[in-house]
Amino acid sequence: MKAIPLIRASQLEPYLTFLDKIGANSNKFLEQSKISIDVLNTPEKLLPEYQVWDFIERAGKGNGSAIEFGLHTGNEGNFDFVLGLMYPSLTAYDALNRLCLFTRLHSSQASLWLCEKGSKIWFCRQGIPEIAVGKKAVEAYTLMLMINLVRYTTGLKHWQPSKICLQMKQNSSIKQFKPLQNTEIKYKEKLTALAIDSTLLSLSQTQIYFPDVSSIINLSTPARDFVGSLRQVIQSFSTNNYPNLKELADITGMSSRTLQRRLQEAEISYTEIINQIQFERAKTLLKESNLTLREISEVLGYSTQGHFSRAFKRWTGITPQLFRQL
Q1: Which residues contact 250 (CB under 8 A, 6 or more apart)?
Q2: In 10 A of CB 310, how many CB atoms?
Q3: For the domain bounded by 226-325, which CATH number is listed?
Q4: Are 10 and 106 in contact (CB under 8 A)?
Q5: CA nearest to 92, candidates 180, 45, 159
Q6: Contact (Cβ atoms closer than 8 angstroms) between residue 209 and residue 195
Q7: If we measure between CA atoms, which residue out of 89, 237, 83, 230 comes closest to residue 145?
Q8: Cα distance between residue 306 and residue 311, in whole Å
Q9: Which residue ranges make up each domain of the chain?
């Protein structure tokens, strides 16, 4: 069963930075898309990609045009969050190829690749067909992000691709955007792509900055199955604020009926998933913290220590006190 597309909270940063730069209220759009401000304190958290794209769409339309918002954010925003995926590397080609290989650590269904055709190497991206909201804004952002990554890896700050392909229909915002005015643009293509001279990507890397990749390597990998990805979505919430089924359906871009049907097909209930999450959190707190049982009960959202103890014994057959001693 296909997994829910997930994305790291860190990928909100370029949009939030740009909104702050233009003096816009990002909190309003986060709230409308049901993204907790607290999640920004843990950039490694996995969120439903639908939820993030919904935020991008709302923020873009709330500031004039979703496509223009995507273009400016990709052109002016911070992209440090992906640099750790690219280095150390020997050449610009090597850096971009590493990005293509490891990008799914940040976005579970992102698809980037390099394709050689004659004297050109095409830097390609495939979107997520099942997500319609925010699609144009995200494509515009990703296009400019890809261009900026080529500029960064080659050291050519003002480089422009000779040709680009876009999945969206012809749009005046794209045509009139200054960084693209000397570029041949094809619309309604099957993928997003930009052409790069192959000799350009053979340039050796001269950057002295090599980001620490240890935090990226240690990230939990986005789940590739439906139940696992759903569990990761729920884990982004605090124990006192788990979403109900309707809320969970909304932020993952499904109807409540579709979500219930997929749970039935997976032969698991929503309550069972919550219990699994609570059990894993309880085990960690019992083994790796000095919190009292009462404090653990409060952290996990139980009204009393007795309620927590009964739940834990139902899961394991033993009390939390005994488990802690093992």
Answers
A1: 34
A2: 13
A3: 1.10.10.60
A4: yes
A5: 159
A6: no
A7: 83
A8: 9
A9: 6-217, 226-325
The pTM of the full predicted model, rounded to 2 decimals, is: 0.86
Helices (H), the chain: 13-21, 26-32, 49-61, 66-76, 92-102, 135-154, 172-176, 214-217, 226-235, 245-252, 256-265, 270-288, 293-299, 305-316, 320-325
Residues 6+ apart with CB under 8 A from 110: 103, 104, 125
Q: Please give the structure tokens belonging to residue 308.
A: 């927590």
* Statement: 6-217 belongs to CATH 3.90.1520.10: yes
Write out the chain's pLDDT in tens, 326 residues.
789 999 999 899 999 999 999 999 999 999 999 998 888 888 888 999 999 999 999 999 999 899 999 999 999 877 777 777 787 788 999 999 989 988 888 889 989 999 999 889 999 999 898 899 999 999 999 999 999 999 988 889 899 999 999 999 998 899 899 999 889 999 999 999 999 999 999 877 655 455 554 454 455 788 889 999 999 999 888 777 889 999 999 999 999 999 999 999 999 999 999 999 999 999 999 999 999 999 999 999 998 999 999 999 999 999 999 999 88
